[in-house]
């Protein structure tokens, strides 16, 4: 049998999750709720600050519970009489963008990927304008060729269709792309199902995640792409 060389397509695009991947949501939430308490102290100050902050973070469940439910529960538990849950929610939607904390090396990593002529995409679950405000607050919207937010797309991760839609917008095939996210199912596995490489941005909430690669710091991503491209040519 004659040996031949099979060339696989190189990685041309990197797609990202937002919360927990590019945006350090845990730190952003802590900053926001601390400032909200101070900002609305005359209305909520009869509750100790530590109690208010801790309970919000518990109810928020790392973003998996939308804030209408969170604030309804807070108003009920703390018997707020001077402010409604709707007013607290409005404050959240207006002010959260002013508390966005990026993960280290975010801009450096995006600059390097763009300098290497990679297409960049983002797929994030959440409310459209709220997520776009946060992306713009991080100053990273200019780097992305396609941004898909679940509310506006009327479909959310881990549904394969939102990944397929993003790839179509970039005019890239699945085997020419990677997806980086912190959630093992919604990000890593969902991307792998459509044929992309699934890269896990390590998060303390999970262990033993099956991924094509694992990163602790965003600065590692260009090197991962470089390594993938070096192994895309092999002898068969």
Task: Please sum up the structure shown.
This protein is an alpha/beta fold. The protein contains eleven helices and eight strands.
What does this structure look like?
There is one protein chain. With 236 residues, this protein is an alpha/beta fold. The chain has two domains: 5-24 and 103-235, Rossmann fold (3-Layer(aba) Sandwich); 26-99. 47% of the residues lie in helices and 14% in strands. It has helices at residues 25-39, 41-44, 49-60, 67-78, 85-95, 106-115, 128-138, 150-153, 160-170, 184-193, 221-230; strands at 5-7, 13-16, 119-124, 146-149, 177-181, 197-201, 213-215, 233-235. The strands form two sheets. It has a six-stranded parallel β-sheet, sandwiched between helices. Strands 1-8 form a two-stranded antiparallel ribbon. Strand 3, helix 7 (128-138) and strand 4 form a beta-alpha-beta unit. Helix 3 (49-60) packs antiparallel against helix 4 (67-78) and helix 4 packs across helix 5 (85-95). The model is unreliable at 1-6 (pLDDT under 50).
């Amino acid at each position: 049998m004659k040996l031949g060389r099979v060339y696989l397509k190189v990685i041309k695009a990197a797609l990202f999750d937002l919360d927990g991947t590019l945006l350090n949501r845990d730190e952003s939430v802590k900053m926001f709720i601390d400032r909200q308490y101070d900002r609305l102290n005359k209305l909520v100050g009869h509750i100790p600050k530590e109690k208010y902050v801790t309970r919000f973070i518990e109810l928020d469940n790392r973003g998996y519970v939308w804030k209408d439910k969170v604030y309804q529960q807070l108003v009920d538990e703390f018997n707020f009489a001077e402010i409604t849950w709707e007013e607290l929610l409005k404050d959240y939607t207006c002010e959260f963008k002013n508390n966005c904390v990026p993960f280290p090396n975010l801009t450096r990593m995006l600059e390097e990927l763009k300098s290497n002529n990679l297409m960049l995409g983002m797929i994030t679950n959440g409310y459209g304008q709220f997520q776009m405000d946060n992306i713009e607050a991080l100053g990273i919207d200019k780097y992305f060729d396609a941004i898909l937010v679940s509310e506006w797309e009327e479909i959310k991760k881990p549904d394969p269709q939102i990944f397929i839609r993003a790839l179509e917008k970039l005019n890239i095939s699945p085997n020419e792309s990677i997806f980086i996210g912190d959630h093992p199912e919604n990000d890593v596995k969902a991307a792998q199902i459509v044929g992309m490489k699934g890269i896990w941005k390590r998060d303390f909430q999970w262990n033993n995640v099956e991924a094509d690669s694992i990163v602790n710091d965003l600065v590692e991503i260009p090197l991962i792409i470089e390594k993938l491209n070096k192994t895309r040519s092999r002898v068969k």
